[in-house]
Amino acid sequence: MPLRKLIFDTSAVNALGLDPDIASMLKGLGLSYVIGITETVLAEIVATPDEEIRRGLLAVLDRLVHPGYCLMPYQWIIEHQAKAFDSDRSGFDWRKLHLRFLAGEVEIAKQEFVHTISEETRMSNLQLEKAFKALFAQARPPFQKLFESGEERPSFRAVTEHLLADGGAYLSIGAGLMERATGKRPTESDVKEFIEACPPFKALLVALCFAQYDRCIRGENMPSLGRAGRNDMY
Predict the structure, then answer these.
(1) Environment class of 76 (CB within 10 Å of its CB; exposed 0-12, middle 13-18, buried 19+)
(2) Within a domain: residue 218?
(3) Which of 28, 109, 102, 39 minimizes the C-alpha distance to 76?
(4) Is 111 strand, coil or helix?
(5) Quick one: 157 and 104 in the same domain?
(6) 125 falls within a domain
(7) Is the same domain home to 12 and 88?
(8) N or C: less crowded end of the chain, CB within 10 Å?
(9) Distance from CA of residue 160 to its chain's centroid?
(10) Residue 39 lies in a domain
């Protein structure tokens, strides 16, 4: 029976690092799962200001990597998938692409430069998060104005289906992502075909729909859907 795959976010890695029974937990995880370490989690840990805490969290990642591997940055994953789809649509299988990020694994183990770029990484993460929030903050007022008359707000599902339907804005975003990878502008039907053939690509677009709904369309008195930040979404 194949092992199941498991990917932690940074908060879970933090919790593991604080658990006194971490050794037995990691042993059990290694017997039951293939562990994935995402580049976004690695970047958040590298950005930890306190070096002692940072080294401790990197040690946790080092132990998790042994029953698993480090994953490429999400944008590389999408680019690899788009190129593979473009070169062989009939034979495309998103699960067969090699997405291991060996450079990340080597750096987790050797820590040759992560500590020297910690502050730079922290500032970069903050700037990217600020830009992510600003993008939706600027879009929120026009969306909110649409509902001033008391018109019922649509559900998240309805908004997502609209944005990904024929002529939807997020099909254009998807086309831009594919064009960046392949150098060719796909048709709308090409984008829709890739969305259905590549769940990671579809997940990225749905995550962006989620962010737009929660930050732009959701009413002030409606429960938040989570307010996940940029790294959590990606």
Answers:
(1) middle
(2) yes
(3) 39
(4) coil
(5) no
(6) no
(7) yes
(8) N
(9) 18
(10) yes
Q: Which of 54, 86, 116 is the last residue in one of the domains?
A: 116
Per-residue pLDDT of the chain (234 residues; tens, 9 = 90+): 567 889 988 988 999 888 888 888 888 888 888 899 999 999 999 999 999 999 999 999 998 988 889 999 989 999 999 999 999 999 999 999 888 999 999 999 999 999 999 999 999 999 999 998 998 899 999 988 988 888 888 888 999 999 999 998 999 999 999 999 999 999 999 999 999 999 999 999 999 898 899 888 888 777 776 667 888 777
Q: Final residue of a domain: which of 116, 146, 164?
A: 116
What is residue 21's three-state secondary structure?
coil
Give the CB-side neighbour count of residue 119, counting CA atoms within 13 A: 1
CA distance 160 to 206: 7
Tokens 């339907």, residue located = 165
CB environment 41-61: b (16+ within 10 A), e (fewer): bbbbbbbbeeeeebeebbebb
pTM for the structure as a whole:
0.83
Q: How many domains in the chain?
A: 2
CB atoms inside a 10 Å sphere around CB 130 = 11
Residues 107 and 19 in one domain: yes
Domain that holds residue 149: 133-223
The answer on 172 and 112 residing in a single domain is: no
Sorted by sequence, the CB contacts under 8 Å of residue 30 that are 6+ apart come out as: 66, 67
d(CA 100, CA 98): 6
**Dihedrals phi, psi of 16, to nearest 5 degrees:** -60, -40
